[in-house]
Amino acid sequence: MDIKETIKWQWEGYLNYHQSRENLFIHIVFVPIFIVSFVCLVLSIVWFNLVFASIFLFAMMLSFGFQGVGHSKETNPSEPFTGVKNAMVRILAEQFYTFPKFVLSGKWYQALRKLEQK
């Protein structure tokens, strides 16, 4: 599956894998941390600052770990990764495209409201 197909597939099933209140809140906090940490990691590498690069890499891993905890709260578990390339594409697509789109489209809020009405 290429990147374009992966993004389409991820978007079409995204709500199905994000129905837990805990997971929604974990993502709204930790996806921005992942994004900022990634940008800072790249800048740290460009500026040859390995101390900051290590800190931001750790922050990215911590963010991703918390999101994994959030996904464990879901009744519909995420599809397993099929390999390293698949994992990298899916993780980066979710962090930089799918989740921001989920928030900006209003679907994150709709999912949260739906849970509050139950």
From TrEMBL:
Domain of life of the organism encoding this protein: Bacteria
Transmembrane feature ranges: 24-45, 51-69
Alphabetic keyword roster: Membrane, Transmembrane, Transmembrane helix
A Pfam family the protein falls into: Mpo1-like
Keyword Membrane recorded: yes
InterPro entries the record matches: Mpo1-like
Protein name, as recorded: DUF962 domain-containing protein
Protein's organism: Vibrio tritonius
Lineage, top ranks: Bacteria, Pseudomonadati, Pseudomonadota, Gammaproteobacteria, Vibrionales
